[in-house]
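User: Need the bound-state model for iron/sulfur cluster:
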Amino acid sequence: MIGLRRGLALAGALRRGTAADGLPYKLTLIVTRRCPTRCSFCSIWKTPSPDEMTLQEWDKVLFSASRAVWVNLSGGEVFQRPDIGDLTEILARRLRHLYLVDFPTTGYFPERTLDACERLVRGGVRKVLVTVSLDGPPDVHDRLRGRDGAFERAVEAMRALRAAKLPRVSAYFGMTLFPDNHGVADETVAAARAAVPGLTERDFHFNIGMESGHYYKNLGIDATPPLAALKVLERYRRRGLDPVSRLERAYQNRVPRYLDTGRSPVPCAALRASVFVDPQGVVYPCSIFDRPLGSLREHGYDLRQVLGGAGARQARKDVVAERCPGCWTPCEAYQSLFAHWTRSSPERPPVPSGSPDRPAEVPAATETRTSTARAGTRTATRAPAEEARREQSR
Ligand code: SF4
Ligand code: SF4
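Assistant: Bound-state model below.
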């Protein structure tokens, strides 16, 4: 019965484009900025993160958003928090309709990762997706991560996750393509498959790196891969008809358009379907748009209060009018694709069924996956015509 209730809640949320209470159905919760790795394409690890929200504070926030069905837990390294197991238990208890939890990890804390997965499943969560980040074969991964032995830690974590065979828990490797590593995808897959018996190409997911303002703080670091990276996406494209494969293809099919324009290829569902909360309780539209909407600490830990404020209302208009940095990261794109397909986004322009933007067959989205941790505020140069069109519409 619990599974049915949660499945129906997820289906309803995807159809409406919001949770049953009108709040976003997906919460991206950044629970820490602490991180054991020193990635060259991300500055989270350099960013002081004092006074992160406590378990009690997160509990109150979750109480205010109790109809959410999907939580992306992220960091930093989520499992750097010693109390992460207790936090996952609070998640499962407070969010009674919670269907899906996904998180990225460096693989540095396999025991905490397994413990959190077990607690989520025990709490009734229907699907837990773990993405172990892998950015290259050992030498490349360790260099990009700024830590000797980082590759080995990642594959050890994957071995532990696979050996545990936890029900309703899936683990993938996630490779984000940057200018520095898009040419070594095959070597990465080969090295990981040599280290983890039984892995197949389906156990790898690929997405593209971006630049980030308020979150990864890597503006100015060129994280966006060249067009040649599209060959990697094509080479590892999932061919199946299952929901995950179809969702991933829909995302990947639109990457060229994003690289060309620097804009989200479909109307963005941020602040309607999803919202982002940082470790100190400051709310943003997404992991990308550097527009603080208010502090949960100053609003009684009530997400509804922050999202009902003037700042959030203006930000919603700005998202619709594309007055935001624009991005195409799976962390945000998947909700937008769902909204696009189900027409739950009221601002969505009509797209004929069967067109590239609206496949005739819409996947029954009962499962999805997470990307690696990073996503960002792309400061990409927009195509001039695109820029002019947007200026006119302002
Ligand atoms: S990209 Fe992820 S793992 Fe690397 S420093 Fe940033 S938060 Fe940590
Ligand atoms: S930056 Fe990306 S996710 Fe954020 S509002 Fe703009 S298009 Fe949406």
